[in-house]
Specification:
Elements (H helix, E strand, L loop, with lengths): L2 H24 L3 E2 L1 H6 L5 E7 L13 E6 L5 E6 L11 E9 L2 E9 L2 H9 L1
Parallel strand pairs: 1-2, 4-6
Antiparallel strand pairs: 2-3, 2-5, 3-4, 5-6
């Protein structure tokens, strides 16, 4: 095999390796409350089930508060201070933020509406 053929192949493998390394170092996995207490940072991804009846928001306030349960069954109070999101129909949300004592302060929230997926199941 000629050297001119090997150089592009080596370059491609290096580029793929660097891409995988950068992606895996910047990816933030979903964590539990137990893991959050051991970690630091303000971009922790905490997936929780919303505890029914715990949602509260004062009129005119841009802060949404509710209680959530992680996948291990541990509960925490969540205070969302980012863009307001309608969680009235949601069962689960992913909160991105940081743990401050016994409160998880979320700056971003990802919501999946369960009704969207229930329609797909019926088909």
């Amino acid at each position: 095999m000629k050297v001119s053929s090997v150089v592009p192949i080596v370059f491609c493998f290096l580029a793929i390796g660097i891409s995988v390394a950068v992606f895996s170092s910047s990816a933030t996995p979903y964590i539990t409350l137990k893991e959050a207490r051991k970690m630091s940072g303000d971009r922790l991804n905490l997936g929780v089930e919303i505890i029914k009846g715990s949602r509260s928001q004062r009129p005119g306030s841009k802060v949404l508060e509710f209680d959530g349960k992680d996948r291990n069954g541990e509960t925490i109070h969540i205070k969302h201070v980012g863009e307001l999101v309608d969680i009235s129909k949601a069962e689960r949300v992913t909160c991105i933020g940081k743990l401050e004592g016994d409160v998880f302060v979320s700056q971003q929230m990802l919501v999946k509406c369960p009704s969207k997926y229930e329609e797909e199941k019926k088909k």
